[in-house]
Design goal:
The protein is built from four helices and seven strands. By secondary structure, it is α+β, with helices and mostly antiparallel strands.
Amino acid sequence: MSKKKPAKPPGIAKAKATDKGAEKSGDKFSNTVSHESDSKSIDAQIMALSDWRGEVLARIRDFIQQAVPDVIEEVKWRKPSNSMLGVPVWSHHGIICTGETYKDKVKLTFPRGASLDDPVGLFNSSLDGNTRRAIDIYAQSNIDARAFKSLIKAAANLNQRKNT
C-alpha cells in the first residue's frame, strides 16, 4: 500500500517558480508567472487577520496601489514561522517594500529606505542600517496617507532609476 505525500499548502510551488522566474523585460524583477494568485493570497492574509492588523495591511496596500498603480504584488518567503502564508511584497523595478504582520505591529520594510527622503519621519525602525528602513505600525498609530504615498512613489522612482 503506497502512502500519498501530503499536499503542499496552496501557492508553495508557485512561490518557488516566481522566485526563480525573474527575467529582464522592462521591469528587472518581472516574473513569467502570473501575480494574480499572489494578490489573492494577500487578500486571504488580510481576511485572516480579523483584528486591527488586517485593517492596517489593507489600508497600506490601498495606499501603495494608489501611489503606484502598476505595482506588482507578490508573496515571498513562505515558511512555517509565518504559517506558510509568506510575506506580501510590492515591487516596481525592484522591491518597494514588504509588509509583515507580528502580534503587536505591522512592519513595512523598505530595502532602499536609507536612500529616501523622509521629511515627516515615517521611518521609525531599522534606522541604524546603511540601506534599509522600516515603519512599525502599532494598533494606535496614525498613518499620514499623503506622506506615505509620497514615500512609496519615491521608492518606486529610485528603483526605476537604479534598474533601467
